[in-house]
């Protein structure tokens, strides 16, 4: 991605439904963003001081009231694809999802005030104040051949000043990524922390009849099929840098571990021992994997380099040990074992020392997922006849149930900011991909495919 400083001039500035689709013309949204999207950066004096706004989100958790009118569009060109409405809609959804912003929803008022701005040739900050806005986003779209150029600016209403402005250029495929990019910038300006709109999910679906790996934007849009093994793919996991996915495939009849290079699509065998090679998890530095192998009999936990070398066995028990996951500091590994008679979650040092049992409630606990801050573990528990998502606080030992009701809820995966969890659920029939806040609220389905959705993995922030 090319980037250069450039002051954006003051600029003036319709909500259409989005439909999920499967894109099969490329390998990775990350590659599309970094390869096809050109970014110029412009910022006012606030650019390097996002802490100016930190008190807004930390003192009593009051949300920032922000106005996002439809983007203005190039004069003389008909906006046949409703980019002006879609840009505002995507940005609105991103900021609402972040949990830091209260977006002004009255579209008529937004349209009226924007029209006054256009007529006067400047932003009428007093008018925006009357709507209760603390900040405004103004966007403008130009079409040049097949290229979409977007100018986005964030304003402080009280000060009557531009906080930051960015210019993006890409094609229709990268339109959502351009808006997501600015959304993350807005979150950064007000919290000091990048947002998650530029993160991605990978998951399993049988949309083509076989279990293959798919990727999607964090909000479930821009679905792409990235494997064509015509077999069974399982347990995909993003690498810490977002450049690779490790997964188990039955393509060669044995459950083998393969690595996918997300930029070029190259697949490399990592572990192809006879028997089970599965449930791989990345170390925080991306140099090692924890895996479950049955090459010596029953399934045990091992670690290895990403190329499959320097194999180290961590468990040695007649029980089945599986589903290992590395802690964020790299010092511990959580895993599932039935050594107590039923599957429960255990924790040990990354060298196999200091083994201890973590879960006790429920007859079947599995699929541990460590929160980014290392203080909590989410997992799936069979309790009351259904699988539900629980979280245990590793400091206090408190256990909280996040899902309940009909159906099974499994495969929790944390967002990189620790504020959201993706999971799979069959509460509406087939398993599909859902998200919720880390406290269990705001549960919503974000992906629906006829082939279902399973085993989500949430990427780190993709720059």
Would you mind describing this structure in some detail?
The structure is a single chain. It contains six helices and 32 strands. It is mainly β and 463 residues long. The protein has two domains: 22-191, TolB, N-terminal domain (Rossmann fold), CATH 3.40.50; 200-458, TolB, C-terminal domain (Neuraminidase, 6 Propeller). Strands 2, 3, 4, 5, 6, 7 and 8 form a seven-stranded mixed beta sheet that branches. A five-stranded mixed beta sheet has the order 1-11-10-9-32, with no helix packed on it. A hairpin with a 2-residue loop joins strand 25 and strand 26. Helix 3 (83-98) runs parallel beside helix 6. The longest helix has 17 residues, at 175-191.
CATH class of the largest domain: Mainly Beta
Q: What CATH architecture label of the largest domain applies?
A: 6 Propeller
Rounded average pLDDT:
86
- Number of distinct helices: 6
What share of the residues lie within helices?
Answer: 10-25%
**Structural class, judged by helices and strands?**
mainly beta
Instruction: Kindly report how far apart the N and C termini lie.
Output: 9 Å
Spatial shape:
elongated
Could you provide a short overview of the structure?
By secondary structure, the protein is mainly beta. The protein is built from 6 helices and 32 strands. Helix 3 packs parallel to helix 6.
């Amino acid at each position: 991605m090319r980037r250069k400083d450039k002051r954006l001039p003051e600029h003036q500035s319709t909500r259409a439904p989005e439909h999920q689709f499967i894109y099969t013309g490329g390998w990775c949204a990350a590659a599309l963003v970094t390869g096809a999207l050109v970014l110029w950066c412009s910022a006012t004096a606030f650019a390097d001081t996002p802490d100016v706004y930190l008190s807004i989100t930390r003192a009593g958790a009051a949300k920032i009231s922000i106005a996002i009118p439809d983007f203005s569009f190039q004069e003389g060109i008909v906006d046949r694809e409703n980019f002006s409405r879609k840009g505002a809609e995507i940005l609105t959804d991103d900021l609402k999802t972040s949990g830091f912003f209260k977006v002004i929803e009255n579209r008529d008022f937004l349209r009226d005030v924007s029209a006054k701005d256009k007529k006067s040739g400047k932003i009428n900050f007093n008018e925006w104040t009357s709507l209760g806005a603390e900040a405004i986003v103004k966007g403008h779209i130009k079409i040049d051949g097949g290229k979409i150029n977007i100018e986005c600016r964030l304003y402080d209403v009280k000060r009557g000043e531009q906080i930051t402005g960015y210019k993006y250029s890409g094609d229709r495929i990268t339109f959502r990524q351009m808006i997501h990019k600015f959304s993350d910038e807005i979150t950064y300006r007000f919290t000091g922390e990048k947002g998650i709109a530029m993160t991605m999910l990978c998951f399993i679906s049988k949309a083509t009849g076989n279990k293959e790996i798919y990727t999607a934007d964090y909000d479930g849009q821009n679905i792409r099929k990235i494997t064509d093994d015509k077999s069974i793919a399982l347990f995909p996991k993003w690498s810490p840098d977002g450049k690779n996915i490790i997964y188990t495939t039955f393509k060669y009849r044995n459950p083998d571990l393969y690595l996918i290079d997300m930029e070029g699509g190259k697949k490399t065998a990592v572990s192809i021992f006879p028997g089970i090679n599965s449930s791989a998890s990345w170390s925080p530095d991306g140099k090692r994997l924890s895996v479950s192998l049955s090459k010596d009999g029953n399934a045990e936990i091992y670690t290895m380099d990403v190329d499959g070398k320097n194999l180290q066995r961590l468990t040695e028990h007649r029980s089945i040990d599986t589903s290992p996951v590395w802690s964020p500091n790299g010092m511990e590994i959580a895993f599932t074992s039935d050594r107590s008679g039923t599957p429960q979650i255990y924790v040990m040092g990354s060298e196999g020392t200091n083994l201890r049992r973590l879960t006790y409630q429920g007859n079947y606990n599995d699929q541990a997922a460590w929160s980014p801050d290392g203080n909590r573990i989410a997992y799936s528990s069979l309790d009351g006849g259904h699988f539900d998502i629980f979280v245990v606080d590793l400091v206090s030992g408190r256990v909280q149930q996040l899902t309940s009701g009909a159906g099974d809820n499994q495969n929790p995966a944390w967002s990189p900011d620790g504020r959201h969890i993706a999971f799979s659920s069959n509460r509406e029939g087939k398993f599909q991909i859902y998200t919720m806040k880390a406290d269990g609220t705001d549960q919503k389905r974000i992906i629906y495919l006829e082939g279902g959705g399973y085993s989500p993995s949430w990427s780190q922030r993709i720059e």
